[in-house]
Design goal:
The chain is α/β, with parallel strands linked by helices. The chain has 5 helices and 9 strands. It has a single domain, classed as Rossmann fold, CATH 3.40.50.2020. The two termini are about 25 Å apart.
Length: about 180
C-alpha cells in the first residue's frame, strides 16, 4: 500500500502558500492506518522498547498504537499546563513565537529504551524539544519515528544530528 496516496493535501491552509498534509485521511483508512503502525514499529520490534513517547496531539494516535504493538508503555509529551504533578519543561521556537512542552518528571525510569513518535516533522522544533525533555528524564532514545517528513524544512536532519536514528514513512517535497 502506498501510504502517500492516502494523505490528503490541502493547498493554502492555514495560510496562502502552505500545502497542508492532512493525515486524517490516512487514519480513517483502516488499511493505511494499520500499515503505518506496522511500518513504524518494524525497526524496534527486537529492541525490547520500554516506552513509546508521543507528542501531543496527533503523535498520540500513532504512539499509543505502537506502544501496544511493541508491548511497551506510552508516555505523553504535552503542551504546558496539561500534566499534573512534577514535570520537566522545554521551550521551543515556532514560526511566530514560542511554546513549551512538558513531560512528567517520573515518566521514564533511568535508562529505559524509548522511541519518540509524531505524525509529521517539518522544521523539527517540537521534536528537538521532545528529545531534550526525554534526555532530562534519563531516557535512552533508540529512535524517532514520523509518518510524514517535509525534507526541505530540515527537521529530520536535526534529530539525526542529535545522534538519534530516524524513520519517516512518507516524504513530501514542497510545504
Amino acid at each position: 500500500m502506498n501510504l502517500k496516496d492516502t494523505i490528503r493535501t490541502i493547498p493554502d491552509f492555514p495560510v496562502k502558500g502552505i500545502m497542508f498534509r492532512d493525515i486524517t485521511t490516512l487514519m480513517t483508512n483502516r488499511h493505511a492506518y494499520h500499515a503505518s503502525i506496522v511500518q513504524l514499529c518494524q525497526p524496534y520490534e527486537d529492541l525490547k522498547i520500554d516506552n513509546v513517547a508521543g507528542i501531543e496531539a496527533r503523535g498520540f494516535t500513532f504512539a499509543g498504537a505502537m506502544a501496544d504493538r511493541l508491548g511497551a508503555g506510552f508516555v505523553p509529551i504535552r503542551k504546558a499546563g496539561k500534566l499534573p504533578g512534577d514535570v520537566y519543561s522545554q521551550s521551543y521556537d515556532l514560526e511566530y513565537g514560542s511554546d513549551i512542552l512538558e513531560i512528567h518528571a517520573d515518566a521514564i525510569r533511568g535508562q529505559e529504551k524509548v522511541v519518540l513518535v509524531d505524525d509529521l516533522i517539518a522544521t523539527g522544533g517540537t521534536a528537538v524539544a521532545a528529545v531534550k525533555l526525554l534526555r532530562k528524564t534519563g531516557a535512552k532514545i533508540v529512535g524517532a519515528a514520523f509518518v510524514v517528513n517535509l525534507p526541505e524544512l530540515g527537521g529530520l536532519k536535526k534529530i539525526a544530528a542529535m545522534g538519534i536514528p530516524v524513520t519517516a514513512l512518507v516524504s513530501f517535497d514542497g510545504h
